[in-house]
Task: structure prediction
Amino acid sequence: MKYFISAIIIVIIIIGLYGYNQGWFENAEPDTDREVEETEVETEVVNDEDEDDEEEEVRQPVERIGTSVEGRDITAYHYGDGEDQLLFVGGIHGGYEWNTVLVARELMSYLESNPEIIPENITVTVIPVLNPDGLVRIVNTDGEFTSSDVSGDTVPGRFNANNVDLNRNFDCEWQSSGTWQNRTVDGGDAPFSEPESQAIRDYVEMNDITAAVVWYSAAGVVFSSSCNNGVMDETLTITDLYARASGYPAYEEFNFYAITGDMVNWLAKNNIPAISVLLSTHQDVEWSENRAGIEAMLEYYTN
Result:
């Protein structure tokens, strides 16, 4: 009898081994450790994809937004990471208004040294040189700006390499021939015919700009903007705000002579509150005045 029982046990063992090799029992008992490992791998892949998406959405601190006629970079510098973007632009008239580049660079240095001044809800974007081809006409070989660099006629530095006045090349009452003081200047073949104006147009259209300040020289005033649609209330507010803080007088409109194709007025056409800040001379940076105006803007737009 015991031999019979032993034989049955041996048969059962043989059948069991055969079934195991054939995979009969794979669905009966889940491999818990293996399932946990596979779940962890899948989770890691999903998390990596999420992190990649987040990295793509983070704005880089330095961004090339275009190039000039002669191939020089037009660069935007970003400080802070808030949703409300304040835009500051210098150097639209290149070497003729080279001190506007300096005040923009003063702002960049100030924000780099004092990042705590930027409210959490704000990103400050600075485009220090919109017309780099015009600028290089009056800088020295080291790229330094001093009053001794500016000698003789700096008017050619106002225009880009196509001899177009960029501040007559925007889509607000554009004309091919514009006026500057008592001169006739080239407004380009069409609105945004120039790569420099195209660069700032594309940047503005791809970003939600809360307000903009564009520096010019020289008159020592702050002008509001409009494009035949009246001055927006928000524009009047920041015009008065910047003027009171800086000490510059404020004007609602520029009425000394007809202006066509103006950048700041084009911003107003696109419902962006924008002001022109004119430095008092073509040499002085007047940083303390403009720092006060900038700080007033930051405070005003703080949530």
